[in-house]
């Protein structure tokens, strides 16, 4: 049996992982992703001053199955607990949270668990699947450079909902699931990264917090000192995430303009005046789930087509992993029963 997965982020690789462990032995999995390597929204940006995770910053754990996965990752040195996160109060003051749930992050990079998962499967990186077609009982895929892949017995689409709509909308057999994708709503986020020369700061670790949610700032929603996260070291590096409303308002602005504005907004929270040695920005067009797709199937047995992504469940990294698992369970339930061997 041949199965294609479009999207090799947390959801897609979770689906590949569960297919590999739960599916038939004679199973071949092919993964495709438009990115240059593992990460997706867990990606980072490298510069001379070190790497900065500019996507998702941490995750929490509620599901028992995901908890077991996280413990495996921790034993392998791929994740660690992320303490020291504060929150801005209505007064503007930033204080540590006394009752915060355990938060985890990848170590030494946020995408370390994804690198580990991706290494177990055949992934075609830098491959944007632009069209898919159901012919008879098989799926065929076509990339934006004209390459054709297939046939596949089943297809799992694990990309952001708006991209899934674009891909599946023209496919008659995918009409129901494409309609389901349209229910999800994703929000953008501008991220800015600042690298500092070591001599510019006495010691950023003297801050009363190393990362903070800024709930009452009109521009910024998050600040984090990258070098203080588990498994990191090196010169001071600051990540800034913009508020959703600000990101929407300036969605098409130039990265240089955005980077300057976000750093200016962050300066009020910095302990001393310093200019970064390098400043960059990145636009996440589909960063956060504002509304999940809601109730409804994630797999169409007649079309042998499934959906996976955090937007299928909830706005959490854990939800992406769960969605991959749930999609595979529905796929396997649709397969004909295997004869018992005596």
Structural features:
2 domains, 342 residues, FAD/NAD(P)-binding domain, seven-stranded mixed β-sheet, elongated, alpha/beta, Polyamine Oxidase, Chain A, domain 2, six-stranded mixed β-sheet, 20 strands
Oligomer: single chain
Count helical runs.
8
Biggest sheet architecture: 7 strands, mixed
Q: Number of DSSP strands?
A: 20
Shape summary: elongated
Number of domains: 2
**Lateral strand order in the biggest sheet:** 7-6-15-16-17-14-18
Radius of gyration: 21 Å
Q: CATH architecture of the largest domain, please?
A: Alpha-Beta Complex
In the predicted model, the low-confidence regions spanning at least 5 consecutive residues are none
Gap between N and C termini: 23 Å
Q: Helix- and strand-based class?
A: alpha/beta
Average the pLDDT over all residues and give the rounded result. 92
Element order: H for helix, E for strand: EHEEEHEEEEHEEEEEHHEEEEHHEEEH
Q: CATH topology of the largest domain, what is it called?
A: Polyamine Oxidase, Chain A, domain 2
The CATH first-level class of the largest domain comes to Alpha Beta
The proportion of residues in beta strands is: 25-35%
Helical content (DSSP H or I, runs of 4+): 10-25%
Question: What's the short version?
Answer:
With 342 residues, this protein is of the alpha/beta class.
Would you write up a description of this structure?
The chain is an alpha/beta fold and 342 residues long. The protein has two domains: 1-34 and 127-183 and 293-342, FAD/NAD(P)-binding domain (3-Layer(bba) Sandwich); 45-109 and 185-291, Polyamine Oxidase, Chain A, domain 2 (Alpha-Beta Complex), CATH 3.90.660. 24% of the residues lie in helices and 29% in strands. Helix 1 (10-22) packs parallel to helix 8 and helix 4 runs antiparallel to helix 5. The radius of gyration is 21 Å and the shape is elongated. The mean pLDDT is 92.
